[in-house]
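User: what does the whole thing look like in 3D?
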Amino acid sequence: MSDYRIKGETGEWEVVIGLEVHAQVTSNAKLFSGAATAFGAEPNTQVSLVDAAMPGMLPVPNRECIRQAVRTGMAIDAQINKWSRFDRKNYFYADLPQGYQISQLYHPLVGEGSLTIEADEKAGIAADKVIGIERIHVEQDAGKLMHDQHPTMSFVDLNRSGVALMEIVSKPDMRSPAEAGAYVRKLRAILRYVGSCDGNMEEGSMRADVNVSVRKPGDEFGTRTETKNVNSVRFVMQTIEYEAKRQVEVLEAGGTVDQETRLFNPDTGTTRTMRSKEDAHDYRYFPDPDLLPLELDDAFLAECRDSLPELPDAKRARYLGLGISAYNADVLTAEVENARWFDALLETGAEPKAAANWVTSELFGALNRLGKDIGDCPVTPAQAGELLGLVADGTISGTIAKQVFEKMLETGDGAAAIVDREGLKQTSDTGAIEAEIAKVLAANADKVEQYKGGKEALFGFFVGQTMKAMQGKANPQVVNELLKKALS
Amino acid sequence: MTDLTNLTVAEIRDGHRAGDFSAVEVAEAFNANVAGAKALNAFIVETPDRAIEAAKVADADRAAGTLKPLSGVPIGMKDLFATNGVQTTAASHMLEGFVPRYESTVSQKLWDAGCGMLGKLNLDQFAMGSSNETSYFGNVISPWKRNDGGNAALAPGGSSGGSSSAIAARLCPAATGTDTGGSIRQPAAFTGISGIKPTYGRCSRWGIVAFASSLDQAGPMARDVRDCAIMLENMAGFDPKDATSLDLPVPNWEAALSSDLKGKKVGIPKEYRLEGIDPEIDAMWDAGIAMLKDAGAEVVEISLPHTKYALPTYYIIAPAEASSNLARYDGVRYGLRDLPQGAGLQDMYAATRADGFGPEVKRRIMIGTYVLSAGFYDAYYTQAQKVRALISRDFTAAFETCDVILAPTAPSAAFGLGEKTADPLSMYLNDVFAVPASLAGLPAMSVPAALNREGLPLGLQIIGKAFDEQGVLNAGLAIEERAGFTARAEKWW
Amino acid sequence: MRCGEGASGAASPDKATDMAIDQATVRKIASLARIAITDDEAAAMEGELNGILGWVEQLGEVDVTGVEPMTAVIPNTLRLRDDVVDADPLTGGNRRDDILANAPEPQHGFFGVPKVIE
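Assistant: Here's the predicted 3D structure for the full assembly of 1099 residues, as structure tokens:
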């Protein structure tokens, strides 16, 4: 039994987790204004009169933000609502210039969908699991408050104010920190495949509100707490671990869990009660009278669908179908840039299994060593295809390929050019190989005796010696054949 | 020489074009009237230099042969429209000293058409009121007096009371107004002038301080129907910055004006015959019916069954929207900040808003907050939006049997300042005839029809089908031609 | 908050007495609306609000069976803007001076507010 359980004084507790992921929509301009969304600008420079909620300013929605949310919905097989509308969520805070956030409560753009997290024995996920997604709606981000610039004042920067967010609300379907982690990773992968969010958690492009409750297995759901703005997969998992334990302790001490908003402290891995933004949490939602209902036509939806790329699950299945190992398929599909690079490599005609092995070991190893991402990989897929082609057609051996690859990384030159220049072409010249074999066998007469006496494992030794003598350029198959002949 | 301030917009435009007088002469004449009318308190800010500046441009344009549609016409701007570089207050302490760095779409269109600005006109605070008694900058006084020998100061109507008073007193030939639940029509009726609220979405709301977004609509106020048509042509038009703006061409309303109503049907809503209403109102209405018959129209009785629910519907929806629209006035980014010693952010909000908003604004924010709050939203707001749909359907059904609807604009003539301030409800009831068309987003105008026995103007209202401002203007013109309303307030200020 | 929860309630519009508000409610509403009120104001407001709310409650008697709440006053569809930065200066960014021009407490390009403890 791999179920995650908290062991308390009174027995085992099950953890129930739901996540509300806020993902910044990839767009040039904000959700309701023409101000830019780029990260890291000078304070209040990416703020329009609309974003600052000057008197008389009005919102007009950005088509691209709607499109990206719809495409995201399609990517999780969700119901797309052709009729939706924006509501105002009213509360007062210094980072909220309008005094309300334009969001969608009653009629969200995207309805129910789901995603699948893969089995992961090590993490205690016994089998693939479908996690339900309740809805995706589009809303405005708030501005930012800085508390450390002045002894008695906080400073307000509205650059983020009005940037489009998708709020992706899961069902309370997760039962362990690992499942939640896998969910966030999978969701992030999907968003990045779709191109609707860059998934950059450090810059806050993706953050999660973590809803946690505990119950005795089989009981009703317990009271949940919501920990806000957790911004990494690891922190999401830590939040759940901490919160679940805390709730169990509270309950076992005879207390009750308050339905409240909490904050995660990454330094200590703990959560604490957050000061209430609005005393009664009475947000007085109502349809935004500045905006009409959002109605999507079939042409818009068709474009959204047609522009969707191959998604992680489909890609993984295709790779498995090409004979690529499950492990490699997982590794290759986890990040969209890697998958795209690999697909480009396949398009050069590279043999899938060999290509997958080479990318996951040689290429990723090299990038790791160089501290580079696939985005700034010094070798193009076409160049890699050329290299793998030389191995496949027997021009060079796998060993030489490693040398050639190193040279490619250093010089940026093509594989064939390097092979030519350095004279690394593999030889199948039987005369030359036979001559070297003869020398090797002569120099190791004792081992030849042992071999012939039955120690067949020594065959590898003779291959190695021969290859060494040939400076690695001998065709290993030819070497094998000739050695067998010589030793028989 | 004629007093240039007695001229209509059309007369100024045409006279200037013909070279009868210069635009600077016109601007100077109106500037003088404005400067001499402090007692009316119609303006919050006077901008004589802007008027002169625009007039000089107009005169130069005439010399260069590059006249614009309204070259040489100075106007008043309701202080709800953001004006770049000129204080914009919504008549509230909250925005005292606020100088926008942007221009509302409607005012920009008027300046582009050649108008000059005489000043920013007083109004009810955040356009909430029916008597212009809620302005932080003091009451606007109507130029009209009762003929009873008394000297009671009368309300110019509201919320566009600065606009109505200024036009009636010849301080400007025309002005902008905004109408959320009668704020153009009722003050027009109270002061013997004309005003039209176009179809919702005709005029961009961008840059107009919001009161209730689903109801707010700008429109012109002027002395006659033709001037309203001219002004509206230069205020209306599609604006991509307003998501509710109508993407329709602006008709040439002035050119198509016609008081010949042959073949037109005029609907008389039986539910507008209120029990206990001043018989003079009904008499004026009957006279209006006769005038439209005389103009060739056929008169039919219609029914608008949900009329009695219009005001309660309005007083849920408008405050609800206002409570949210006015949340931005928090002392953080502009306007008043009241920061008591040692106060935190939330205390600052509460102090700022307590100090910055007047009593009527607070009252409506409180009502709006309450009706949207948890547990009451469906009972109040959702119910109101459903009844609103029924009110709208009533009009749709009625317009299957008629082309325009004729009704009184207000249930009474102008009342005295202070007469209704103690009882908010009695004040709200003054908009009983105006609010239904607002809820349905329909074009509606008020034209002066008669004087009552106290010598005060009464207005008739024409409500039209959506987009049919022409039908409304034409019926208005037919009344105007027959009512022969020439009375004006005797100057006492 | 999740869809459909909380924001709509069970209050029935035909029970006016349920909706009568007391001074505590007045203060709660004032707090939600961030308007400081004195006891005298709360007392005065109690009467006024009850008067107005009692009057609007007549809407409860209207049969709205099968009626959808009005969404658009005039039939019109929501237009969407193109995803272009600063296409129109009136709705674009890069105007910090204008944004801060009326600020009560501008601070190094920020809006200053009393220190907030989260």
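In plain terms: Confidence is low (pLDDT under 50) at residues 1-18 of chain C. Residues 39-56 of chain C form the longest helix (18 residues).
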